[in-house]
Specification:
333 residues, mainly beta, 48% strand
């Protein structure tokens, strides 16, 4: 059974005091707690997207024309999804309740899978070009897609139908993300814009224009109050979005050298992971900063913890599959 262990809460997702959170970060990142290396074999050495299930038990990997779901901590294959995509899968997403998988490929085909049975439920020709990003809203009501045809599509997952196409970007739309517990949807693209939408009213709330080059990734903090973007200009830019009618810039700093390709927040909403095209990995915590470098470009990076005992950077590479790097092996700056 695929879902038998996907829904338990990990230690780091329970309420903790600020002192305990800081202490745990110190232990996680200085190697004082035990850790082990994880391996997830793939058929393709070039992996464009990876996603964790809501509580981090399962890792989804876009592996060529298939998607593989692994039990992360025990390192075994739970299920493989294949036989539908005829071109490389570029973007994947898991629903918050671990019942659905979405995948988009180079041809613009979007597929919705039953995560339990492995069977395809719906297929749409969502874009006329590469699907670069897909995401489920946290309430399961909506699915969004972003494509190299400059378009954003919004789908009603209750009725399994297309709702609207947005054409507010003038270049490739590289990323789409939904606000946890809220009504916001954010997109970023090659036109250097970050656009914030109200997904229920289907309107643009604000265009955020701090970037000067391609925006490659966006992430919300788990409390839904902060939106952070990064891209080719090396800028890591954050906005306070607690009040959707009054979105305010919080911080903006250039980190790493080369295009930043991915950013991800940890559960404490303060620690974040940043990776780039040159294989550089950067973890910024409230108390320490860590760096690491691998020999291959990185497409996607995620943070993971083993029930609060170790912190890892999980990265999808262009040439070396999926790599897992313990924070204890990184250089502390």
């Amino acid at each position: 059974m695929l879902l038998y262990n996907l829904n338990h809460l990990s230690l780091m997702q329970r309420p903790v005091t600020h002192f305990f959170s800081t202490l745990m970060i110190l232990l996680l990142t200085t190697g004082l707690l035990s850790a082990s290396n994880y391996k997830f074999p793939t058929d393709s050495k070039i992996i464009y997207d990876i996603r964790f299930s809501t509580h981090g038990d399962a890792l989804a990997v876009a592996d060529g024309k298939t998607i593989k779901i692994y039990h992360f901590s025990e390192e075994y294959l739970l299920k493989e999804f294949s036989g539908v995509h005829e071109t490389q899968v570029m973007a994947i997403a898991l629903s918050a309740d671990s019942t659905l998988l979405a995948s988009g490929d180079r041809s613009g085909l979007l597929v919705i899978w039953d995560l339990q049975t492995g069977e395809p439920l719906h297929q749409w020709q969502a874009h006329n070009d590469i699907i670069l990003s897909v995401d489920f809203s946290h309430d399961g009501e909506h699915l969004g897609t972003a494509g190299a045809d400059n378009k954003v599509n919004l789908y009603d997952m209750i009725r399994a139908e297309h709702i609207v196409t947005f054409t507010d970007h003038s270049e490739d739309v590289t990323v789409i993300r939904f606000q946890p517990g809220g009504s916001l949807m954010a997109t970023g693209g090659g036109d250097s814009k970050v656009i914030v939408y109200d997904r229920h009213r289907r309107v643009v709330l604000q265009e955020l224009t701090r970037h000067t080059d391609w925006v490659r990734d966006l992430t919300f903090t788990s409390d839904g109050n902060t939106l952070t973007s990064t891209g080719d200009d090396r800028l890591v830019s954050s906005w306070n979005i607690a009040d959707p009618q009054n979105i305010r810039a919080r911080s903006g700093v250039k980190i790493l050298r080369g295009w930043n390709t991915s950013v991800d927040y940890f559960h404490d909403n303060q620690t974040f992971l940043l990776v780039n095209i040159k294989g550089r990995i950067h973890i910024q915590t409230p108390v320490v900063r860590m760096t690491h470098k691998i020999r291959k470009p990185i497409n996607k990076g995620l943070l993971w913890t083993n029930d609060g005992t170790s912190l890892y950077a999980v990265v999808a590479t262009r040439g070396n599959g999926v790599k897992v790097i313990p924070a204890r092996e990184m250089k502390v700056n």
